[in-house]
Amino acid sequence: MRRTDPGGPSATTGQPLPFGVPDTAAPRLEDLMSRVARGDKDAFSALYDALSGTVFGLVVRVVRDRAQSEEVAQEVMIDLWRQAARYRPGEGSVLAWAATLAHRRAVDRVRSAQAAINREHDQAARQQARPFDEVAEQVETRLESEQVRRCMRGLTEIQRQAVTLAYYQGLTYREVAETLRTPLPTIKTRMRDGLIRLRDCMGVTT
C-alpha cells in the first residue's frame, strides 16, 4: 500500500504495521488527528503510518481482492484527512472511527462491483433475447401470409404445434407445454429453434 500525501504525489512506505493498534496508542492518535484537522501534513504522515496497516486489514476482509483493497484503503486514509475536523474524541477512538470509515468504504466497493456484474449479466441477457423477440414480432405481423405458412411447413411437428399454439391461440410457454404434455424446458428449446428456422426461411434480419 502506498502513502497518500493529500497535498502532493504518493510515496512508497515501508511494510504496513501488523493488524491492530495497541490501546496505548490512543492518546497519540487523538493528538495526531487534532493536528491533522488543522491541516498538519506531518501529522497526517504519522497517522498514515500508524493506521494504514489496520485499515488495509479491515478492508481486505470484506473486499477480498488485494488490489481493490489497496485502492479502498487509500480512499479511507484520504477520508481521514478530509474529515479530520469532524472527529469527536468523546464519541469513540480514532481507531474505531477509522474502522467505521473502512467498513463503509469496503461494503460500498463490494456492492458497486456486484451491481456492475448484475448490469453486465442483464445486458448480455437482453442482447441474447432481442433477436428472437424481433423474429417473434415479425412472425406475429406476417402470420397469415403464404410465406409464413410455407415456412411453418418446414418446422418439425412439435415446433409447428408450439408456434401455432403460441402465436395463433396466444398461449404462454407453460400453457403450450401443458397442452402438448411436454416438459416446459423442451417447449422453450423447440420454440427457440423454431423461431430460428422461421427467421432463416423468411429472411428476417436481426
From TrEMBL:
Keyword set includes Zinc: no
InterPro entries: RNA_pol_sigma-70-like, RNA_pol_sigma-70_dom, RNA_pol_sigma70_r2, RNA_pol_sigma70_r4_t2, RNA_pol_sigma_r2, RNA_pol_sigma_r3/r4-like, WH-like_DNA-bd_sf
Pfam families linked: Sigma70_r2, Sigma70_r4_2
Stretches for region Disordered: 1-23
Residues in RNA polymerase sigma-70 region domain copies: 47-114
The RNA polymerase sigma factor 70 region 4 type domain, residue ranges: 146-198
Keyword set, alphabetical order: Sigma factor, Transcription, Transcription regulation
Entries under Gene3D superfamilies matching the protein: 1.10.1740.10, Winged helix-like DNA-binding domain superfamily/Winged helix DNA-binding domain (1.10.10.10)
Keyword Transcription regulation attached: yes
CDD domains noted in UniProt: Sigma70_r4
Family matches, as PANTHER family: ECF RNA POLYMERASE SIGMA FACTOR SIGK, RNA POLYMERASE ECF-TYPE SIGMA FACTO
Protein family per UniProt: Belongs to the sigma-70 factor family. ECF subfamily.
Stored NCBIfam families: PRK09646.1, sigma70-ECF
Protein name: ECF RNA polymerase sigma factor SigK
Organism: Streptomyces flavotricini
Gene: sigK
